[in-house]
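Dear support,

Our group has been running a series of protein-ligand predictions, and this particular one with zinc ion is the one our PI (initials K.S.) wants archived with full inputs and outputs. We had some confusion internally about which version of the output was final, so please treat the block below as the authoritative record. The input we submitted was:
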Amino acid sequence: MAGWWDTHAHLDDEQFGTDLPDVLLRARAAGVEQIVAVGITAASSRNCLALSQRHDFIHATVGIHPNEIQQAVPGDWEQIRQLAQSPQVVGIGETGLDRYWDKTPFSIQQEWFARHLELGRERNLAVVIHCRDAENDVVLMLREAFERHGPIRGVMHSFVGSLETARACLDMGLHLSFAGMLTYKNAANLREVAAQVPLDRLLVETDCPYLAPVPHRGKRNEPRHVLHTGAELARLHGLSPDQLAEQTSANAARLFGTVKHP
Ligand SMILES: [Zn+2]
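Confirmed final output from the archive:
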């Protein structure tokens, strides 16, 4: 049996207070072999790194989420840059653009997204990209980076965009990661897009504790539920869940690099 990667989990979220050890045990028992713990603030990035140092199946990303920028204090970015040098850090982000929540002036979001892209390039780490109601804006900034520097090492996380956006991102070298929405009844369009993504660019994630897939929709999400999204993605591609796990895990290992605890 091939193991799964949950490529996007907010393991340091307060919803995983005291029972995180149980959550991790359940994930491992269900066949989730690797988890990427994604930072959203300087403090959260530190927590994710600490988790990755305690467990060799957890990998960390460090960054400041577009909706958290207003809470950042001087020195936070320098800390992200410093954390990014740790060997357990496999990615930069979560970064990106968000017009839905409107928590940070858009031009400031763009400035921070550009910073994260640059840091990812500098350290040759995958950039973890959040995009909500801002597809064109994200593609525009990615294209600018792509035209200057070539293919972008990174992932459009919890992808819900159009086929056109998917193609634009794939053309620039990005991976697309699908979360629980793929299993929702009203997500026929998203399933159509997911079915057309080349196998070697697919990833799966939970984005837990949010966005639990069917049949856990509405409850706290956790890494083991990645299997439901994975099964749906397998069905869309005419593969067995095991084949899909093998493929997406190989993709994740390649994208994030698995140089762990050297
Ligand atoms: Zn996230």
